[in-house]
């Protein structure tokens, strides 16, 4: 069975046994453990698109941000409760 190599193991080879990892190794571990995906950004743009319509084109950035945060918070609560109602 093929498995993907672990990039963090490369940095383990550069550390000395019995010594704490160097700042470079700690930084590399932090960077390599971040999952790269754009789902949350796409979800946020979708929320902005549904909020900022032709009829609401004069909303200020603060109001738009507050509405988007409220909508996302309500969506998260609905997911936790298991309801399937959608805000449109």
TrEMBL record:
Instruction: Domain (HAT C-terminal dimerisation): give its ranges.
Output: 27-68
In terms of Pfam families, this protein maps to: Dimer_Tnp_hAT
Superkingdom to which the source organism belongs: Eukaryota
MF-aspect GO terms: protein dimerization activity
Q: What is this protein called?
A: HAT C-terminal dimerisation domain-containing protein
Source species: Paxillus involutus ATCC 200175
Mind giving the lineage of the organism this protein is from?
Answer: Eukaryota, Fungi, Dikarya, Basidiomycota, Agaricomycotina
